[in-house]
Specification:
Elements lengths: L3 H6 L2 H10 L2 H5 L13 H8 L3 E7 L5 E7 L5 E5 L2 E7 L6 H8 L2 E8 L4 E12 L4 H7 L8 E15 L10 H32 L1
Antiparallel strand pairs: 1-2, 1-5, 3-4, 4-7, 5-6, 6-7
């Protein structure tokens, strides 16, 4: 009971190592609270709305883990309700490793990164594949105006999540974020250039 992510991930083997390393008591205290960290709240909803990629881990029939990067327009991971996420699966390299793994084992681990703000969110859940014939669900997972070919959808029933600390997350920025950060400097630079051009024009006029 308590922290749902810890309930799932802190197995007996994990707890044994925590005891050896002296961190067990810190995490064991989580079990004394009512269940938490399993319902999608507004903070997570807003966080996911700004994400344009995530990492998705599955396990194949031989127990090998597989991690795949998934990308798309911002907010392509949809929040269906407080228990459920979903996304449209766009056409990629056509290996279908994750799709095949989920037929054997529906457990999934998702990892979302916000590099500029040094935040990361881990989500555990169970996956259901949605075929294109399930048009109502597919339409719910689609993004308006997106023309990328959709091959299927995935619905994820959330079992637990956890926010990580920012330690060791290197800040990184994409082109759009850099442009936003530089916008004020660009405006100031343009204003200074205009002042210089105006001064030059005045000098020519006054000659």
């Amino acid at each position: 009971m308590g922290h749902k992510f810890a309930d799932i991930m802190f197995t007996n083997q994990v707890q044994a190592i925590q005891k050896q390393q002296g961190s067990f008591e810190n995490y064991h205290a989580w079990s004394e609270y009512e269940d938490f960290n399993y319902l999608i709240d507004d903070t997570i909803r807003q966080f996911l709305a700004q994400r344009d990629s995530f990492y998705m881990a599955s396990v194949n029939q031989d127990d090998w883990p597989y991690v795949q990067h998934r990308g798309g327009p911002k907010g392509f991971m949809k929040v269906i309700d407080e228990h459920t996420l979903g996304f449209a699966d766009f056409s990629g390299n056509r290996q279908y490793v994750s799709a095949g793994n989920f037929k054997h084992n529906d457990k999934v681990s998702l990892f979302f990164m916000d590099y500029p703000r040094r935040r990361r969110l881990k989500i555990l859940g169970r996956v259901t594949s949605v075929s294109l014939t399930e048009t109502d669900l597919i339409e719910q997972l689609q993004l308006d105006g997106n023309r990328t070919k959709v091959e299927r959808g995935f619905i994820i029933k959330v079992e637990a999540y956890d926010w990580n600390c920012p330690k060791f997350i290197t800040q990184r920025y994409d082109t759009e974020q850099v442009q936003d950060l530089m916008a004020n400097l660009v405006d100031e630079n343009n204003a200074l250039k205009k002042q210089i051009d105006d001064l030059k024009a005045d000098k020519k006029t006054n000659r």
